[in-house]
Amino acid sequence: MYLETNDLGESYVIFETLNARGKDLEISDLLKNYVFSKAEGNLPTVQVKWQRLTNELSGFDLTKYIRYYWNARYGLVREKDLYREISATITTPKESADFVTDLNGCATYYHDILMPDSCDMYDDKDIIAHLSALKMLRAVTFIPILLALEMQKDFFTAKNKADILQAIETYIVRNATIAGKTANFTEKFFATIAHDIYTQKYLTTDTIIDKIKSGMISDMDFYNSFYTFTTKTTAYIRYILIMIHNYLDKNHEINRNPSQVNIEHIMPKNSDQWEIDAKTRDAYLWRLGNLALLDDKLNKKASNQPFEDKKKLYAKSLIHPNQELANYSRWTSQEIENRQKKLAEIALKIWC
Predict the structure, then answer these.
(1) pTM of the entire predicted model
(2) Rounded to whole angstroms, how far apart are CA atoms 150 and 147?
(3) 13 within 8 A of 65, measured Cβ to Cβ
(4) How many CB atoms lie within 10 A of CB 165?
C-alpha cells in the first residue's frame, strides 16, 4: 500500500486513524511511503530496492525485521515508536537511499535466522545448529545481535558468531525457558549489546560473551528453577531432553522427527493399572522428571502399562537418559523428584 500525502504529520494521522479502525495497515507500509517521499532523485533506485527487500522477505513480517535492524543500530525502540524514530532520523535523499540499501544487506541473514533449515548465507554447521535450537526455544530477542555482527562482519569469523550464539542459547535456556523471565528485560539487554557491537564498543568475541553471561541468572537460581520445571510446551521438552542425551552420549545422535520419537509420560495421563490420585497426577504429569523421549514403536508398547513393564522397554532404548530408568524399582512422585534433581545437576554442566 502506498499512501498519497505530502505531509509527514498527515501521514501519521492517517496511519493511526486506519489502525484504530482495524484496517490492515502495517508500519512498514507507512515507512515505505515515507522513504519514497524523501528519496527525490533516488526514487527509482529506492523503489527497486524496496521491492527486492519485499521479495526477499515474502511471508515474513517486514515491520519486525525493520525494528530488529533499527534496534541493532540505535538501541531498543518499541514497535509503536518505530515510525517516529525512523522519520526523525532519515531526513535526506541520501539517508533514504542508504537506509533501504542497508535493509537489503541484512535481509537474507534475517531469513536464515528465522529459517535455519534453508539457509542462503550461513553454511557453518555450528551456526545453523544454534539457530535451529533458538528456533525450537522460540527465541527472537537475540536477532539484533546477529544482525549487528553481520554489519561488522570484518571483525567476526563464523566461529566467533557460533560462540556468541552458543552464549545466547545458554542465556535463553537459563533465563527464559527454565526460569520464565519476561522478554522485556532480555530484549532491551540484547538490543544494547547489539548497538554496542554496531558502534564498535564491543569488537571481541570474549567481550560480547562476557556481557551476555553477566545477565544470566545464577547457578543456584537456575538449578532451583530446573528442579521444579514443568512445561507442556513440547518443543522445550524435546530440546532439553535431546541436549541432555547429547551430553551423556556423544556417539549416538537422536532422531529428531517427532513422528518417530515421541514424548513419553512415565507416569501416564490415564491408566487403571496405576494407582495415581488426581492431585498427584496433575502436579507431576508434566514435570520434566516424568518425561522421556522414546522411539515411537517402544512408546506405543509402553503406553499405560505398569512401570515394571515400561522399564523393560526403557532399557532397550538407545536414548541415554532412558536407560537409567530401568534401575528404578517403582515410579512415584518421589522418584520423579529424584530424577529431576539429577537432570538439574546435568543441566548445570550443559548450560554454564
Answers:
(1) 0.90
(2) 5
(3) no
(4) 24
